Amino acid sequence: MKLGTAGRTVTLGIIGLGGRGVGQMKTLLSMPDVQVNAVCDVYEDRAQNAADIVKEQRGAAPFCTTDYREVLKREDVEAVVIMTSWQTHIPIAIEAMRAGKIVSMEVGGATSLDECWEMVRVSEQTGKGVMLLENCCYNDVEMALLNMIKQGVFGELVHCRGGYQHDLRDEIGLGDINRHYRQDNFMHRNGELYPTHELGPIATYLNLNRGNRMLTLVSMASKAVGEHEWLKKNRPDTDLAKARFNEGDIVTTMISCSNGETIMLTHDCTLPRPYSRGGYVQGVKGVWMEDGHGIYLEDDAHEGGTYAHKFKSDKEMLEKYEHPLWKEYREFGLRGGHGGMDYLVLRAFVESIQKEVAFPIDVYDTAAWMAITCLSEESIQKGSAPVNIPDFTSGRWMRREARPGDMFSLDAVYPEAFTE
Amino acid sequence: MKLGTAGRTVTLGIIGLGGRGVGQMKTLLSMPDVQVNAVCDVYEDRAQNAADIVKEQRGAAPFCTTDYREVLKREDVEAVVIMTSWQTHIPIAIEAMRAGKIVSMEVGGATSLDECWEMVRVSEQTGKGVMLLENCCYNDVEMALLNMIKQGVFGELVHCRGGYQHDLRDEIGLGDINRHYRQDNFMHRNGELYPTHELGPIATYLNLNRGNRMLTLVSMASKAVGEHEWLKKNRPDTDLAKARFNEGDIVTTMISCSNGETIMLTHDCTLPRPYSRGGYVQGVKGVWMEDGHGIYLEDDAHEGGTYAHKFKSDKEMLEKYEHPLWKEYREFGLRGGHGGMDYLVLRAFVESIQKEVAFPIDVYDTAAWMAITCLSEESIQKGSAPVNIPDFTSGRWMRREARPGDMFSLDAVYPEAFTE
């Protein structure tokens, strides 16, 4: 593999150009083999702003519209990147595939199982792939963990945890015109709204949809008091300070897998706290945890009885097991947002199209990961009843080829480990 | 309060004298106002060993038997301390109350709701109290946390976590004569076998059974592979290495409370790891976590956006909010096992009897906390279905007096905070 090696030109339409959309588009524009031929946002100012950026960087102005259907009609767009509000990702993806476009989309959760199934069926019928742009699967720490796991450092895995633990009270609590879909979702829904940042990497650790799959989940929500408290203190005179927020401050979800592992997810966005994805990986040989940056491996000498055992810093191990892709990436030079992972996930999307290979995060992964949101809502509504997680692969998960170790669908780093 | 001030003599019978029983008995013998008049264990060698210790320390040999019923008949025993196998705590406690004895017992879980109810009803009928000897409620860290919570450091609480995370593979995997009840339980049961070390302190934080109560729980168990792997490696030639262990390596339990808080418990005893009770307390003003020893409070200055926020060490805050009882205890001189907390819980039992006041951990707490074990088994058997947690107080929890801040039922440290 040679990061950034230019392939044939990939022509894109960008749909959804809020803060995140513009950032990702700029990263795409840094790739010489990518051409942005259409930009779209329901807000005209945003679409125009994006068009100006493309023109400035590439000389020619792209097609600019407030109607994504216009983007889907264009022959100079082979693939779309959807970065709209959470609840519009899947409907637009389905229309895009029906219009013959390849699809990628930013992360978020699904509103119903039905839309997940429709996305899967339309992808199967049209032969057009869908890739969820789950950047955290490409982060340095998560990829080092993947590397350690594939090399057997933790032995057989038993339990993984993660969370979207991000204090977003000020963003959710914007009192005037709030174009951000988060406010709607936190005000009206109650569930694991944003599962994929932690579940995506865990899915790569546990080979979900490739020899393993998620079977059932149970979710529980705490009371919702954090956002209201924040608004009372910081924006006491707004209508929002009197509004009801349905989303529980802490939503915990337990997931069972066919190979016997369990997964714990935490959604935590309306209480004061440091950002953390709360990563936690536990196997028969040891345990790693993100909070506290600790690792404990059985093979390390330990004496003095079980109370004397201590976590040690994970720094050395993360360096020792740095993923080969990241070694190459550091030489190439990090770019794009979020510590560099955004570039990698977008590059995996572009290169998979160029080489006509399956996406490392495909439509089955996208459907399964996003379905956690509506399933968690259902579980909470039913008093934390267990709900089934569908097998979107229709049984193929038992024999599907393992995901490539470099998450690029090419030049797999661990061919032997992945030939299960 | 004056720790260790001798009151009237309390006469005890000790039932169950394995390693833990002997240790606790020695701590009791260090109290001049306690007299051990009877010792009992089903194994004669253990009973005799205990009798020898009492004789050596106090001059006179106590009554010594292998039948606890003989202890219950004695007039020179007003209270019993039950430290037998988990599954015999409650049946013996019930018989003891019927024989007119006051009861304390070591921690463990219940095998059925029925035995919990019977314990409650017999206590109500006989007027004899039951105290669960949950030492972790008296640990320095947990009591500092309680102090912080009562003084409003975390604001309204939303979510708490804890775990019994203790690598016990060698103890469970003893291959020859194993008198320890853990092996039976791990081989045959599958549930949250040991909930009270973490749930006890959380119950004090959340005022459970005193203005708040646990409503429902859901449990999920991972596969059970850790003990088997350990035996294959360390004791490959034993029958035990071929035995089936039912207890999932990681059992997670979510509990909902009437005031909207949620609680997460983790049982983790058959994988390699450092000991941790995984404490975690989160409210509208901040969060504390045991792993990593981190605390984050909103009132601390934080700049640079939410990604810049960091946990800081909890050392300073734990010192600043050291519980008054612990300040006094350090002057008095720590004694007994487990960093000093064993002495405090036993002393609370003794002094409550002397002063004829209710136990700080009473029969309703004992029943509710221990019931988590059989309820978690039920939930797991039903595919992680939610199960109701009974209201053992029969509605009295809404108006019951708050638990004293010093957990001694006397000279409450925070009378105002507890008058809710």
Q: Strands, helices and their partners?
A:
2 copies of one chain form a homodimer.
Chain A: E1 10-15, H1 19-29, E2 34-40, H2 44-58, E3 63-65, H3 68-72, E4 79-82, H4 89-98, E5 102-105, H5 113-126, E6 130-132, H6 140-150, E7 157-165, H7 169-172, H8 181-188, H9 196-205, E8 214-221, H10 226-234, E9 250-257, E10 262-268, E11 280-283, E12 286-289, E13 294-297, E14 312-313, H11 315-320, H12 324-332, H13 341-355, H14 363-381, E15 387-388, H15 415-418
Parallel strand pairs in A: 1-2, 1-4, 2-3, 4-5, 5-6, 7-10
Antiparallel strand pairs in A: 7-11, 8-9, 8-15, 9-10, 11-12, 12-13, 13-14
Give your account of this protein's structure.
The structure is a homodimer of 420-residue chains. With 420 residues, chain A is an alpha/beta fold. Chain A has a domain at 140-322 and 371-402: Dihydrodipicolinate Reductase, domain 2. Chain A is built from 15 helices and 15 strands. The first copy, chain A, has helices at 19-29, 44-58, 68-72, 89-98, 113-126, 140-150, 169-172, 181-188, 196-205, 226-234, 315-320, 324-332, 341-355, 363-381, 415-418; strands at 10-15, 34-40, 63-65, 79-82, 102-105, 130-132, 157-165, 214-221, 250-257, 262-268, 280-283, 286-289, 294-297, 312-313, 387-388. In chain A, the strands form two sheets. In chain A, strands 14-13-12-11-7-10-9-8-15 form a nine-stranded mixed β-sheet. A six-stranded parallel β-sheet of chain A has the order 3-2-1-4-5-6, with helices on both faces. The longest helix of chain A is centred in the C-terminal third of the chain and has 19 residues, at 363-381. The two termini of chain A are 23 Å apart. In chain A, 57% of the residues are buried. The model of chain A is unreliable at 410-420 (pLDDT under 50). The interface between A and B is large, with 56 and 56 residues.
